UniProtKB/TrEMBL annotation:
Gene Ontology MF terms: galactosyltransferase activity
Uppermost EC category: transferase
Cellular compartments annotated: Golgi apparatus membrane
Membrane topology: Single-pass type II membrane protein
Domain DUF4094: 26-118
Family affiliation: Belongs to the glycosyltransferase 31 family.
Protein name stated in the entry: Hexosyltransferase
TM ranges: 25-44
Name of one Pfam family that matches: Galactosyl_T
Main location as per UniProt: Golgi
EC number: 2.4.1.-
Pathway: Protein modification; protein glycosylation
Keyword Transmembrane: yes
Length: 409
């Protein structure tokens, strides 16, 4: 049957549909529907998600066995730590000692590499080794390099007559205590000239020089210091290397005892740490030509050991030797050394006993039982008129001639 609609009915129906399509759903209703759908979905998912324990029922026997074994091992390790804490700490200590041993081995290999490199580049140390007909490094506890000059023969004699041993005693000290002492000097501008021959004659008499392949000069002290460390590590396998000036009084026993306190540590830099002003004025003592590198006028240097005496450990001396060709030198040698070490993981030890004053300062400390490692006058950067006064300082502040033989380290 065909339904017949009147035009009026058709128009009414069309108008009704248009009104229905014209109604819009508000944003709030849509947002509410979305939130409701999300919550319903979350609730459904949570109810349907299996618990962790449910997974075990779906594992094949082999997987279940591995899971149980892993759980048993974790429980066993936990109980072991709780029951035997000392055993665990023992293993930790053994591991730490093994790491330290490996570190020492690496340091030794680096030192040997430095020796080979230095010998190839400069031929340093050949004289010392060939005189003993051996190519192996000589073991020592400390190598003390006493910086000296061609014109300082009387200073050297003042040391030999006071705190520095000589002759057979010097050899005995090196053999029995591992304490090596050498006057450190380079060559004259006229190689083989009268100055060189005078040192050769003095060395033949006393046997207490270390000659460097270096032209002597006050403004070359930084280079000389670098060459001393680079050369010393190619000859002696020592735990420490010390640089000291020839106008400074030293108590050897106190020096060795002080170093021995730090022998188990690596990368040690010991001395009287200071931070003096950077002097930009030309013509003044200790003028720094490269003052602009240290910032604004009036700035101070970074912390470093004063140049009269300081000590570094073997690994630092090795570092200097390996990198000798690229280490920058400043006008002042103590600043140069500090700059070589400033960017490394180095322990700076501020040891005030290494910079006592001359009497009455060191004398008062000696009477109080606080013997000094080294004594000098700050205003002279050494003992003022050291040739005349060294014996007096030694008498007032010395530890006794036999002290070094009684040091146990």
């Amino acid at each position: 049957m065909v339904s017949i609609f009147s035009p009026f009915q058709l128009n009414s129906e069309n108008n009704s549909n248009k009104k229905m399509r014209g109604k819009s759903v508000s944003g709030k209703v849509i947002f509410a529907l979305c939130v409701a759908s999300f919550l319903a979905g979350s609730l459904f998912t949570t109810q349907m998600r299996p618990r962790p324990s449910d997974y075990a029922h779906h594992l094949i026997p082999e997987q279940r066995g591995k899971l149980d074994a892993a759980k048993h091992e974790c429980d066993h390790k936990r109980k072991l730590v709780e029951t035997y804490p000392r055993d665990v700490m023992g293993e930790v200590i053994k591991t730490h000692e093994a790491i330290q041993s490996l570190d020492r081995s690496i340091s030794t290999l680096e030192m040997e590499l430095a020796a080979v490199r230095t010998n190839k580049m400069t031929g340093q140390g050949a004289r010392e080794r060939t005189s003993n007909h051996t190519t192996t490094l000589r073991r020592a506890f400390v190598v003390i390099g006493i910086n000296t000059a061609f014109s300082s023969k009387k200073r050297r004699e003042s040391l030999r007559e006071t705190w520095m041993l000589k002759g057979e005693q010097l050899k005995k000290l090196e053999k029995e205590k591992g304490v090596v002492m050498r006057f450190v000097i380079g060559r004259s501008a006229t190689r083989g000239g009268v100055l060189d021959r005078s040192i050769d004659a003095e060395d033949a008499e006393h046997g207490d020089f270390l000659r460097l392949n270096h032209v002597e000069g006050y403004h070359q002290l930084s280079t000389k210091t670098r060459l001393f460390f680079s050369t010393a590590v190619t000859i002696w396998n020592a735990e420490f290397y010390v640089k000291v000036d020839d106008d400074v009084h030293v108590n050897l026993g106190m020096l060795v005892s002080t170093l021995a306190k730090h022998r188990s540590k690596s990368r040690i830099y010991i001395g009287c740490m200071k931070s003096g002003p950077v002097l930009s004025q030309k013509g003044v003592k200790y003028h720094e030509p490269e003052y602009w590198k240290f910032g604004e006028e009036g700035n101070k240097y970074f912390r470093h050991a004063t140049g009269q005496i300081y000590a570094i450990s073997k690994d630092l001396a090795t570092y200097i030797s390996i990198n000798s060709g690229m280490l920058h030198t400043y006008a002042n040698e103590d600043v140069s050394l500090g700059s070589w070490l400033i960017g490394l993981e180095v322990q700076h030890v501020d040891e005030h006993s290494m910079c006592c004053g001359t009497p009455p300062d060191c004398e008062f400390k000696s009477e109080a039982g606080n013997l000094c490692v080294a004594s000098f006058d700050w205003q002279c950067s050494g003992i003022c008129k050291s040739v005349e006064r060294m014996k007096k300082v030694h008498s007032a502040c010395g530890e006794g001639d036999g002290a070094i033989w009684n040091v146990d380290f």
